[in-house]
Amino acid sequence: MSMKPYLALAFILLSFLITGCAHTVPPHQEVNQALQKTLDSTGYNYSSRSRITNLTVPVKELKVAESKQLYLEKGIEIIRGLSINADGAIDLKTQKSEALYNLHYDRDNLEVSIKVPLLLDYQAQTLYVGTTLLNTLFPLPPANKGKLIKIDLADLLQLTADKSDKLNKLFTKKNVDSIHEGFKIGILKGVADLKDERFTDLPLTPVDKAAGVVRHISIKLNHDESVTLFLTMADSLVQRLYQDGLLTKEEYGILMILTDKQKIESYLTTFSVAVELDVALESSGRINRIESRLTAAGKDTRYQIGLENISGFSNYNTPLFLMRPELTGTVDYKEILEAIKAAKTAQKSETAVSEPPKEKQQLIK
């Protein structure tokens, strides 16, 4: 008897297993597992883009002077053209985070971009700032060109007087871990509590395939589900911070009221909100990309806002940092402030020399 039919059947079964095994887990369970794996990682690189997709405000109905309405309308137009991009890295082991923030405006054939590179070392309580527009306005001395500006946060926190001690404690490893754990518990619980029918498999897009994505899952939430998700995440964070001593009993009581759905029900009925999430998973079971879309509107829909964020993740547990203070060198922010102060003083002196005395000005008249 020929073995060909059996070989053909075996080939078909193998093909089915290879292409379909990743989908044997229900989408809700798959997302729960992916979130757990992602949040259990010690670090990653990320790329994020946030923008406003809709902004509707009845300007003419607002009680503002007619002369100010035009400025308000133009301000809203500018906001519609703004987006905030961020590329960076997070490393929980070394307690460092890096971000290249890019405030981007693109509208009416005008494109403007302002970038601010930051590196935060939580353990050392130090913020490093890379080259920005300020370097153009206030150039560094030649010897300091290319160096990162070093800001000792402990110094700055002293300006907050009685609150400085509490703010200082936020940067300890224990408290940074506490905040991270609070967010983690809230996200896992909030998503796990959602209904299974809110999760749907989508076909892979060309972008998915190029990025090595193996499964694309859509999550659509109505008003009540969206609010419950946000409040669950906030409540878990508050509970963790109070448990670890980051909040006083009074602060805890106030925040618990704000996260109690029943106590803020009257406010929640004044608007409607909906959330859509597209979660792209890679073969490791972690999240490759999340696309988030939030829409909110007043009950009469006169006020509306739409927000979109697309975030990609890579290099799990081995994040790469571009800002390296130990290689580029640093200059203390106090030196920069002194240089700016000296430049302003010199400018005033030059202006005073170039202007004739008041007596001469009167004679000239």
Beta-strand level of the residues, as a percent range?
A: 25-35%
Give me the side-by-side strand order of the main sheet: 7-8-9-10-11-1-2-3-4-5-6-12
Helix content: 40-55%
Mean pLDDT: 85
Total E-strand runs: 12
Looking at how many chains there are and whether they match, the oligomeric state comes to single chain
Rg calc:
27 Å
Outline: globular
| Structural class category | alpha+beta
Q: Which runs of at least 5 residues are low in confidence (pLDDT < 50)? A: 1-22
Biggest sheet layout:
12 strands, mixed
Q: Please provide the ordered H/E string of secondary-structure elements.
A: HHEHEEEEHEHHHEHEHHHEEEHEHH
* Total of helices: 14
Cα-to-Cα separation, first versus last residue: 120 Å
Key terms:
365 residues, alpha+beta, 12 strands, 43% helix, globular, disordered N terminus
